[in-house]
Protein: Coatomer beta subunit
Organism: Parasponia andersonii
Amino acid sequence: MEEGEKLLWKSKAEDSSTMVSVTLGRVMNTLLSARPRKLNVAVSRLSFSDLGTNPSAGSLEEALWFLHKYVKDAAEKDVSLDDIVVPMLENSLRSRDVKQSHGGQSMILINWLFQDVILFQALARNLAKIIATKDDHFIALGWCTLVRGLVDYESATDQYPMNGIRQRHNDLLKIFSSCISHLTGIISKGSALQDGFELPSRLAVSAADCILVLSEYLTKVVGVPSNRQKISEVSTSRNRQVTQLATGSDKNASIANKSSEVSNKEMEYLLWDHLEEIRRLVDKLLAWSRKSRPLHVKGLEQVLKWLQEIKGLSDDLQDGSIRTGVLLLASCWKHYSMLLRMEDHKASHGYEELLEQYLLGLQFYTKNHAGGHSENKDSGIGTRKFFLSCLCLLLGRFDRKRLESMVAENGMRISHVILPQLCGVDELDDFHLHCVDEDVIEGVVCILKAIIFKPHISSESSHADNREADAVLPLLINLLDEQDGTARAVIMLLAEYCLTSKDKLCLQEVLKRLASEIVVQRKNAVEVISELIRISSDSTTALSLSSWYNSGLLADPSMILPSLIRLVYSLDQRVQSSASDALVRVLKFHNQSAEVLCMLLDCLGNIHQSLDFQKSTGDVGEGSKLETDQVLKLIPEWSRSVHNWNVLIGPLIDKIFAQPSDATIVRFLSYISRHLAEAADIVLYHVLLHTRGQMDIDESSFSGWEGGTHTSGDYENVQQLLFKHLCPLLIIRMLPLSIFNDLNSSIIYGELINEDYTDIKIFSHECVASLLLKRAFYKFQFEDVRKLAAELCGRVHPKVLIPIVCSQLEHATSSRDLLQIKTCLFSLCTSLVVRGRDSLYQPAMYDVRKLLEKVLLWSSLDGDEVSKAQHGCIDCLALMICANLQASESYKDSTPEKILIVGKQIDSGDSSSRNSVLTYVINELTSDKNEPVSTSQLGGELHAFGVPVPLSFRLCMANVLISACQKISDSGKKPFVKRTLPLLIRSVEAIRESDIRAACIQVLFSSVYHLKSVVCPYASELLKLSLKVLQKGSEKEKMAGAKLMASLMGSEDEILESISGGLVKARSVLSCISSTDPSMELRQICSKLLACITYP
């Protein structure tokens, strides 16, 4: 029975709740659908004293009575008012109109309910709570709309009294300010990317405006004096105080504190507490405006910069000084927040008053600052920044049509106020130039672009009315007479105007200054042209590049080249491309002017040495390098336009000798090497002309240089001499090998072709070959010069070079002059590499090989100079083998019946292989006989009869073969293997010396390692040999055999397939050695090899 009663009561309660909800829904629908005027009348008739009795049924008064009762009951019981609030939000959003931004019914009802403090608290708290609890974009949008109307009630509606909202306004601000953080979150997520730009959603825009309105009214609770009076009517002391507020001066903070007492400290600090959210909001507004509001963006950038400065100061302020920041923030944000609203349809109607205020403010503070009346000049600059930012924000809000109308009405007025900001005076006809703040310059430039040059206005209207430009351009041109921040701003403006205007008058005025006798005028004119080039790639211009190329710009390249070259290094790819094109055009225009080329090289040299320029381009850092090649890569395109190199080569060669330490010139010449080759005789003539008068380094200076005992002055002189000796060699190295092919060229060989090569007088001839030989073989010579000269000697025709080098090598060997020996070897090796068989088959090469044998027989220690010379001999013999084998393959069809091989005329065919350098080396390595191995036919006179070949010499022969394996070309690999491997495989077991056997196996290992699949026919025999030496050989032989086996097992598949039959035996041998051999290193190697062939 009791349970039944409980269920009955529960059912009745649910029915009662449902009835209330239904009734409430009807009531809200009745009230929110009523005409605002009729609803306001009903509210006026129904006083709070009449709410005790129920009005007549079906009337608006009854609905109001029910609503009041419901809200009061909910407030007393602390029940949610969502059923009341949500319909109001929906109504506020539905009734939104272009002319009236906020719903009238909701505002009237809330104003009426707010008259009761209890109802106000309940309803306001529910409003603040619902934005955070309801994840519904429609509700959030209605909330932002309604709250903006409640906060800005004076603008929302002027038809009905809003006494309830007015009475509770400060409390309402305090409650709603707690929602700023949530609104900031909505804004941060309310963007979409389109074409690289952020575009806001409708909700994000509404949330941003809601924060702006809230923060604007928070500034009004701070005790800042009103700014509504016109600035022209404010006293001097008052203006000084505003200036101090705008710049944050400590002195004016105390004045402001005394004049702005407020009772509610907590309210005053609400805006300050939300400084970070405001900064984030401005940052988002900046991103949203970038696509289509450039002037507004400039204002936003200044505001954001100012907020960041305030934020930075806030961390350092003491508690007693925070009010300074509060006053500063409130005084400026009051204007900024109003100008930043994204949807403010009433703002355009009152722009004239705001524009007048800001222009008057600029005039006042410009005059005050320039006249020296301001006690704090920084304060004057700060206040001017504030007014300029406001102007940017105000003018940047207008669309094209509205801006065009505004310019027509106020363009001249704005230009007369804005332009003096660059100069610090209040009249356009009285210029006293000053270096002003960069922010001021940027603000002025942006405003003048929008107002004077009209980049946003259609081309038809912009050319129909150019009054502002006609009035201001002469003044801007005159400002090019100074070199300061003002001139820089003017440069930017004039470049932009020249780019967008079809009228060439401005450009012609700039070009006139290129010929001015005043340096500053010329420099500024060049800067205008450079800026024009930089921005030309960013726009579709009315003035094409070709038109100003033909306007006289190219008349004086000395003024334009430095700027063009720097722009080529711009990090902006479009600017870089435009500047590169311009530079090539300038150079082509002056393609017969050596002076312009020298000027280009000077600019590159200066830039390369300029650390400041590297910093400006962002290239400085650890491991960073300025790439001069960025300009030099343009040189080939220019060089194709040069028709007469004769007029350019002389001055270029003169320049490199005048500045021998400048590597940029050498790099430049390398880019035109093909053209230099076509005029090689002229190049070489000028090179020899400069070398005739060059001094040789004397013994004392050379000793001081080598020993490091010279004075600082001597060091500089000797270093300069080093560069001078290197210069001609560097130039010659750029020329192709073919210039040395003509034996009849007097400038290359002179009379050397007819000389006795044993005569030391060959170094006195004034020809290129003689110069190279002298630089290479002169006794007192810089090491770098000697090496480069020896390398270049290798290019000299073998018919001239080999006899001379043979003679020098003979003298050096007799006197054991190791330095000269190494020079000869370097030249010979280079000649064998670049000339191949032409060098090998010279008659004197027979004597060269005998001299190499002699050097290889000298006793030496590892690392000493003799050992280094012997390494050179080994490489030289290896290159002879490579040249010989390459010739036998590459020139098989053209080989004559009788050819010269190392000095002897022999029949081609089988004798070619028997009597080659390769055969000689193999025989010297493998023969154990006591009698001489080298017969007179082979040119060997190594020892007397009965004396064995020294072990060290035989090891050198092994190293010759190893070096040949490393250096041989693909065409020579097969004949090398065919002639070498069978002989070595057969000879290993017959050789008595263990070290020689190990050396032969090492040669076989190198052959497998370097020649790869070419050794495949001999792979099986090589494996058998490696197994034999592993079982019976010495420790060195075993190590060499293990390496040989490892090389075979690591080769290509065809070699692995070839040795697969012997792997079973190999596994047995490796298993035995890995466990029994006394050498730990050998055991480890064999264990690894065993693991490779053992299946798991």
